[in-house]
Amino acid sequence: MLYTSSVKYESTGHAVHLLVYHLVWTPKYRRSVLVGDVAVRLRELIAEIAAEHKWTLIELAVQPDHVHAFVRTLPSDQPHMVVRALKGRTSRLLRQEFPSLRRRLPTLWTRSYFCATAGNVSAATIQRYIEAQKGV
């Protein structure tokens, strides 16, 4: 789904909503480990997790030392649970699939993250920002 400033509100049985989050998180010690096959696999895993939860992954930028995700969620999904789902499974699976990550880091992700909401007005700005991060 391409996200534009004219995004339609969605509705469930009891709610009309437009919940979009800009999430950022980093590997432990801000190590530059999200490169090559690790970055490719991380993108795949995030897309799978979003699809399972019926979230729309609007934009994703994986940098060597941090991840930006622009995600549309349901009203029943609290932001900290979205981050928990994304960071938890990706950490476990990436560390299983790439033993070098287990040797370099005691855990893949830091416990902290950034989360901001975005409405119709600022969503395009956030999307441009994340797209610009891809080229860095």
Structure description:
- The chain is of the alpha+beta class and 136 residues long.
- It contains four helices and six strands; from the N terminus they run E-E-E-H-E-E-H-H-E-H.
- The protein has helices spanning 36-52, 79-97, 99-104, 120-134; strands at 10-11, 16-17, 19-25, 56-63, 66-73, 114-118.
- The strands form two sheets. Strands 4-5-3-6 form a four-stranded antiparallel sheet, with helices on both faces. It has a two-stranded antiparallel ribbon with strand order 1-2.
- A hairpin with a 4-residue loop joins strand 1 (10-11) and strand 2.
- Helix 1 packs across helix 2 (79-97).
- The longest helix is centred in the middle third of the chain and has 19 residues, at 79-97.
- The chain is globular.
- Residues 1-5 have low confidence and may be disordered.
